[in-house]
Write a structure and sequence with these properties.
The protein is elongated and about 90 Å long. By secondary structure, it is an alpha+beta fold. The chain has two domains: 69 residues, no CATH class; 116 residues, Mannose-Binding Protein A, Chain A, CATH 3.10.100. The protein has five helices and eight strands, in the order H-H-E-E-H-E-H-E-E-E-E-E-H. The longest helix has 32 residues. The strands form two sheets. It has a four-stranded antiparallel sheet with strand order 1-2-8-3, covered by helices on one side. Strands 4-6-7-5 form a four-stranded antiparallel sheet, with no helix packed on it.
Length: 209
């Protein structure tokens, strides 16, 4: 005689299957805890990574110091370096100012392009000698924006007498005053060209020693 399947039996089977599925889902969601040695490995890996980053930053910092195109206290703009010397102790005659710049292997400021002009104007220079050729009068003056190019000085300073006039900058204008007057100094020189490849190689060789 075949067994009769009643409604109660079906309901009991369905509830049993549902309970098993819920238990299975719960088992899947509950991940086993990560062993402590795994956490230690991860912490060690993170520490090593941090150390490598610090070493990398140190190397980059050393390279940057060597790659600086200008000496300390000099400003870098485009291909040139600029040094500002102002204050009572730095106010010198035009000729002495030119000599001081020469000691830095530089020269008094010359402005030969609009880009340099805009940079110099941003510095708001007031009473700084320019590297203009000395004149026999002080009648020439004007706005720097409309006066480039100038007659920039290229000769020996020994030709300058106390009766000559030298150019200086006052914000965005230029004027002439007695070369024996004292004013602030702004020197300029070409920025150093540095080959990154050679610096990187020297860093590697230094670390091997």
């Amino acid at each position: 005689m075949s067994e009769e399947v009643t409604y109660a039996d079906l309901k009991f089977q369905d509830s049993s299957q549902t309970e098993n599925i819920q238990k299975f889902d719960k088992f899947e969601k509950e991940e086993p805890p990560v062993p402590s040695h795994v956490w230690r490995q991860r912490a060690l890996a993170l520490t090593v990574l941090c150390l490598l980053l610090l070493i990398g930053l140190g190397v980059l910092g050393g390279i940057w110091n060597k790659c600086k195109p200008c000496p300390e206290e000099w400003m870098w703009h485009d291909d040139n370096c600029y040094l500002l010397l102002s204050g009572y102790q730095h106010r010198k005659t035009w000729q002495k100012s030119d000599e001081i710049c020469s000691d830095y292997n530089a020269s008094l400021l010359t402005i030969k392009s609009k880009r340099v002009l805009e940079f110099i104007k941003s510095l708001q220079l007031n009473h700084y000698w320019l590297g203009l050729s000395p004149r026999k009068d002080n009648k020439k003056y004007g706005n720097l924006d409309t006066s480039i190019p100038f007659d920039w000085f290229t000769r020996n300073t020994s030709v300058i007498s106390d009766k000559m006039y030298c150019g200086y900058i006052q914000y965005a204008s230029f004027f002439y005053a007695k070369c024996t007057d004292t004013k602030n100094i702004v020197c300029e020189k070409l920025a150093q060209s540095v080959k990154i490849e050679s610096i990187l190689m020297s860093e590697v060789l230094d670390r091997r020693k």
